Amino acid sequence: MGHRLADASAPARLAAPGEGIGPDELALAARNHGLPLETLRHDVTPPGLHYVLTHYDIPHVPDGTPWRLTVGGRVRRPLSLTPADLASFPRVTTRVTLECAGNGRALLSPRPVSQPWLEGAVGTAEWTGVPLRLLLAEASVRDGAVDVVFTGADHGVERGVEQDYQRALPLEVATGDDPEVLVAYAMNGSPLPPQHGHPLRLVVPGWYGMAHVKWLRDVTVADEPFTGFQQTVAYRLRQRPEEVGEPVTRIAPRALLVPPGFPDFMSRARMLRPGPVALEGRAWSGFAAVTRVEVSTDAGASWREAELGPEDGHRWAWRRWRHPWTATPGTYELAARATDADGRTQPLEQPWNRGGFANNAVQRVPVVCLDA
Amino acid sequence: MGHRLADASAPARLAAPGEGIGPDELALAARNHGLPLETLRHDVTPPGLHYVLTHYDIPHVPDGTPWRLTVGGRVRRPLSLTPADLASFPRVTTRVTLECAGNGRALLSPRPVSQPWLEGAVGTAEWTGVPLRLLLAEASVRDGAVDVVFTGADHGVERGVEQDYQRALPLEVATGDDPEVLVAYAMNGSPLPPQHGHPLRLVVPGWYGMAHVKWLRDVTVADEPFTGFQQTVAYRLRQRPEEVGEPVTRIAPRALLVPPGFPDFMSRARMLRPGPVALEGRAWSGFAAVTRVEVSTDAGASWREAELGPEDGHRWAWRRWRHPWTATPGTYELAARATDADGRTQPLEQPWNRGGFANNAVQRVPVVCLDA
Predict the structure, then answer these.
(1) Is A333 in the same domain as A311?
(2) Which positions in chain A touch B113 (Cβ < 8 Å)?
(3) Are residues B116 and B210 both part of a single domain?
(4) What are the DSSP calls for B279-343, one per residue?
(5) What is the ipTM of this complex?
(6) Please, which pLDDT band fits residue B9 given cuts at 50, 70 and 90?
(7) I need a surface site. Which of A192, A256, A302, B205 has the fewest CB within 10 A?
(8) Residue of B nearest to A22 (CA)
């Protein structure tokens, strides 16, 4: 009997009706983690609270480990850079709200079996690094280039395919400055933590997390569209498995509410006492600035405008919003809905696809206002 | 119809045979997180990788928020201290391996329904703070004191009981110096992160995590044994619900192995290629120093001695161990077992109790060595 990769790696599937979270989903949920929603109160997510998703293992890169970022393919001057070399390029710091493409997956019905995110797979950090366009200019991209492929040091198997994690960006995105893609070496002013890509990662403001390749070790300019696993098999929007599907790219608009009151330990059910409640939260979109947030306290039957926080110049980060409410005894379903400058908004019904990507259905927060 | 706490807070229960992880357990798993086992390679767990368990919400304490730690009850000189006041007391830094009492719960059969930990609810940090015994000496404990009660700022409901998180230590532990209990204000040389108790927490080296009260705001010396929820209802070892049960206190011995090779994304199944493999991991016990680690590559049928890392003076932190192995194609179940200086060791069969506490059954890591 042979021992082959394919024996350990099952195809994608949907959970059966009523099927609980299985041991494989639990193993992912225990490793990866979301943002506890009460910490949406921070403009910049404190260390350790930002969501983390690692496809395989976190590579072990102790301080002092030699590290090279190579830039090659269809370029005139291939580069091999240490992290110290990167410090000699211009440095840019950008505040970025980063969200996993699978955020909201475990709320879908039927549930795609994968990392079972609820709604917390998000976080905001200040990323510092070198604009990718400057590195590509230094390497001098040749004519005919179409895609730029990024390879991380994380290694594993998905659906029978052994791989280093790889994703590509179209050349015009990789060399553009809106958003300005970074090869980042610092997060919130400190070297990258291991789980966020130490020593180097890509940051693609406005795009879902799968584009922000961690433990970045190679950039290859290609003259054909990249067809790697994470580009053409995973991270596509499909209704049926045989579809080619649309690629997952930018972050769909979303508002999240800080659940008010206090929780029951086990159920996380929320309770509060009668009186004024400052409902608050954050909203973001990878397509255009958020221009409107509406709040409902009656499960979406009626909506009121929330007050947006001031524009603070952080185009790629979430925006604060507030809405005063006076709670009286009863049961409520709170909700918030973001709309961006392009008119994109959030659906009330789930936008289902087989991968469970980009589910920006409106968050619903049941609360009980207790008797006085 | 009234709106009462009890309606939102269900009694403890065990999962039915074959019952998958439910939405309530998933909500806890998505917030709280374990240590990804590959990061056992770090002597001190990097920020954000240390396990986190929060019973309720993480209190929001922005920098500059006034904070007082009160010390009262059966004392001659009640204290009210700011974090800055604490800096005028002698400062101690201790490297501590901290483990959740519920680590391993989700591996139990039947499964107690609560935070569904696998085996990663552990981490090691350098905690800096004031020895509690010095604060109690300053307050001057009166005769007749038996327990010292610690109250955090985290507020919620458990099984119908609304509470601030509270736990007590016997007076002799609170005033002892082996272990030396700390009121900690720094973790790995930086102010405590929000999820680890900012601005102050208790650290009780050798004890499970429930004793290390976070967001600490009050210390009360009591002349009767403390009967709060977390002391007498939760965190007891019981076979049947009606038992009083033994209290959960110190950390039972455990060894964990860094799973070798590389994973399948979805199943986390491990694969490696034929050749030498340096099996490695950590081992700890809250009762006495770890003196022996054994490794099995045949599901516990045979055991070999692992090589322990040097004694490094960090009595309350995990100890490194290594064991060389040469993998040939086939399927294996790896295991490691720690024994401490008191002769305590790990069981091969689950030590079951209704709360799912202190499950230190030997870890089992299936791996497939692929054909060459």
Answers:
(1) yes
(2) 266
(3) yes
(4) EEEEEE-SSS-EEEEEEESBTTSS-EEPEEPPP-S-TTS-EEEEEEEEE-SEEEEEEEEEEETT-
(5) 0.96
(6) confident
(7) A302
(8) B20
